[in-house]
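To: structure desk
From: M.T.
Subject: fold request, one chain
Message: Could you run this one when you get a chance? Sequence is below, nothing fancy, just the single chain.
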Amino acid sequence: MTTTTLTTGSTTATAPVPTPAPVTDVPAVVDETARLLTEHYVFPEAAEQLAVLLRRRLAEGAYDVESAEELGGLVTADLQSVNGDLHLRLKYHPEQVPQGQGEAAAAAMRRDFDASLGGVPRVELLEGGTALLELAPALFPLSWSAEPLAAALTLVARAEALILDLRGNGGGDPDTVAFVCSYLLDERTHLNTMYARVGDRYDQSWTLPHVPGARFGSTKPVYVLTGPHTFSAAEELAYDLQQLGRATVVGETTRGGAHPREGWTVHPNLEATIPVARSINPVSGTNWEGTGVLPDVPCPAPDALDRALALIRG
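Reply: Done. Structure tokens follow.
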């Protein structure tokens, strides 16, 4: 077991960090990942192709390693080699993660939630009555984040203009996307449709008819800041508002992941993350997979806030 030294004020504490478990049965990990692929991946033909690839690479000895981190990197590279789906991963977790569908991601997100004031690390009043609202590092599950988000969105409702900073947001819950959009639109609005392979069904996402607190509303200007780390549900938030003509996106093109995923623990430190659905925007008829969200006003991500303020000033 290794240790990490934490310094707070004048005191120093040493917190144990569990040593990652070695991979003692690589074939079992790879076979289970291949099985989950074929059962759940939203693109069945690609799933079959990838399962064949993983088993062939296993037979060739490409995965003859004991390190969970190294195995995760090797398998992820192969998983993404067919269609470049960035949600398709054998994800390494430094700390051991619980069993059960979705439990690995939930455990990691819980730590980030507690450390980021519920995903709202910054609310600030800037020049000219403009409010800056940073949502990071994720759009956490709505059952956790509704309270801090409602408080922050109500606080900025009186601003003359709003800047949403998503440059450090790596994704999260589509229901949370709809919750945030509900504060920025007055009428009930269709935001997105998810096609799910299991059940062959289409699920629509709409803004809420009522929200806790006050709405910013649909008439005042909104600017969304993006960068190369903006991903998944954060991309959906930017894309939905952009396609509706509700916001101006400023910054860099986002990473390009539009397929909602589920996760299964296949080793104490490894999670197979597999997209189970795909997004269909009601305006564009498509999504941002592979292309990312293209900014309306391109500029380097570090300069996006200053550029948005300049646009507001006119």
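Reply (cont.): The chain has a mean pLDDT of 92. Let me know if you need anything else for the meeting.
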